[in-house]
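Worked Example 4.2. Consider the chain below.
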Amino acid sequence: MLYLEYPPSGSRMQPMGIMERDRQRLVGAVRSAVEEYRMIEPGDRIAVGLSGGKDSLALLYALSKLRAYHSVPFDLVAVTVDLGFPDTDYSRVEAYVASLGVPFRLEPSKIGPIVFDARKEPNPCALCSRLRRGVLHHAAKELGCTRVALGHTRDDAVETLLMAMFYEGRIHCFEPVSYLTRTNLTLIRPLLLVKEEEILALVGDLGLPVLPSPCPAAGTTSRRRVEDLLAGLMEDDPHVSDRVFGALRSSGIDGWKRPASP
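Applying the procedure from the previous section yields the following structure tokens:
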């Protein structure tokens, strides 16, 4: 079987293994999202929010490869917000970032102790997310970045839409691209066309140094309940998530309408 390399222009047909094909498919899907939603402009410096989870690590990999050949020039820097939980070692993450030729910034914080010890939040996710965004955006501005890339996948979009319907009574999802007037930063989500299972299949092949989540609330959130619900539905019909994502893409809500060709 023959496959095309992911840079389509000027490339020639060549044989490749399954893992190489899957890596190039990941980069190709990121390229498609970037181009379809016009996520990057010439000269952008992009701060990649790197939590140490598989999605953000895969995002950094894909953007580092895309940067090498894409017609729109851009720069990258990886930013990890240390939540302040004890015994979290980011040395393997830092080494991985260096292997991709990307600068790394570890931003310290006390978000974990604030949320769980001082505030004792019964529903900690919203506050934690808001505080993490603040620290990430502040670091991005200090580093001279114009955009922040987040590792939300296709699955995250489907779950967010369902959570808004089930728990908030509205039809809503995060936007593929959103401009923040207070910080003059643009948020982009280049993994939106990638499924979680595709990233899971590449974790070992890409050598991703995935960190276990130190959050005490991990696995007990509303999002996890929606994940479990979807997993149950997909045991009977594996295309349920695909249909929900298709409905989101065709709805045009929250910036999901595909921009017209320039």
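The first strand starts at residue 2 and ends at 3. The radius of gyration is 19 Å. Compare this with Example 4.1 before moving on.
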